[in-house]
Design goal:
Blueprint (H helix, E strand, L loop, with lengths): L16 E8 L3 E2 L8 E8 L2 E5 L2 E4 L5 E4 L5 E5 L5 E8 L1 H6 L9 H9 L3 E2 L5 H17 L5 H22 L13 H12 L7 H7 L4 H12 L3 H18 L4 H7 L5 H12 L3 H4 L1
Antiparallel strand pairs: 1-8, 2-7, 3-6, 3-8, 4-5, 4-7, 6-9
Helix pairs in contact: 2-4, 3-4, 8-9
């Protein structure tokens, strides 16, 4: 599912990249969603807390979120100043095309994922420089002049090079004040991801972590923005999709991801990806 203002219920990227400059003048809570591509979010204004895989980021203006593909996330926007942001969707193939063995342009997404904190927070004068880099991309993608596509590619690549340098130079340990998380729910999540191919009922999870069913369901929804069942279903679909991409037979991919009923898997896959598994591949 996708932020309503990013066009449609789910985002599909058929170009190398796409930039949005968005503004909402009211409080809103959008659905949890994930993408098959990577995403950068530059906050320009407003009061918003971004939830990414159980961590909550109370954003400050000029914060940059690096949302890797398949991460479940959602923004919760408070009433007050307009929620304004620039959002850049980027296809992995585009980054791979211009990468080199010693310079992987998607590395900034992998690095933040490994660190477990998907935020880069510029300081001081650096903040205005990042806004200028995003605005340069915005201007270039609107340009209709000579070599407009080449100009836009160049601006996106410059942004990615600068971001990789900045993220690589940032401290390994992020400022604890920049995010919030629930250690117990993080344990539950790790357990889910390690046992996707098995039966994962609420009773089993609650028993494994000595929690009541009610507390587990309520707290998980509060932290992740989706129910335990929805989270497990989406992670199973993502695992199956990645296996199908690697030429694993569809039925085996579904079984390995924990779908005991193939018809249930097909319906869920169509709902999530808009196509059957074979069409999607």
């Amino acid at each position: 599912m996708l932020d309503r203002s990013e066009i449609g219920k789910r985002g599909y990227l058929n170009e190398p990249y796409r930039l949005f400059h968005l503004r909402d003048d009211r409080a809103l809570t959008l659905d949890h969603h994930y993408h098959e591509f990577d995403k950068l979010v530059l906050l320009l204004g407003g009061r918003v807390t971004y939830h990414i895989e159980g961590k909550r980021y109370p954003l400050q203006p000029m914060d940059i979120l690096l949302v890797s593909r398949n991460l479940i996330h959602l923004p919760v926007v408070e009433a007050g100043p307009a929620y304004e942001r620039m959002v850049l969707w980027i296809d992995r193939g585009f980054m791979a095309r211009f990468s080199a063995p010693e310079a992987d342009l998607s590395g900034c997404f992998g690095l933040t994922a490994r660190r477990g904190v998907h935020l880069y927070r510029p300081r001081g004068e650096e903040r205005t420089r990042w806004r200028a880099l995003f605005e340069r991309v915005e201007s270039a993608v609107k340009d209709g002049g000579f070599a407009a596509g080449l100009l836009a590619d160049t601006c996106v690549l410059q942004l990615l090079v600068e971001l990789n340098r900045a993220v690589s130079a940032a401290p390994e340990e992020a400022d604890p004040a920049s995010y919030r998380f629930d250690p117990k729910m993080e344990e539950v999540t790790r357990y889910i991801l390690a046992h996707l191919g098995e039966e994962l009922s609420i009773d089993r999870l609650a028993g494994a972590f000595f929690l009541s069913r009610y507390y587990l369901m309520h707290r998980f929804k509060e932290v992740y923005g989706c129910s335990v069942h929805q989270y497990i279903r989406q992670k199973r679909l993502q695992q199956a999709a990645e296996a199908i991409r690697r030429d694993v037979p569809v039925l085996k991919a579904a079984e390995d991801a924990g779908f005991g009923d193939y018809s249930v898997f097909l319906r869920a896959f169509r709902a999530a990806y808009g196509k059957s598994p074979r069409e999607w591949k």
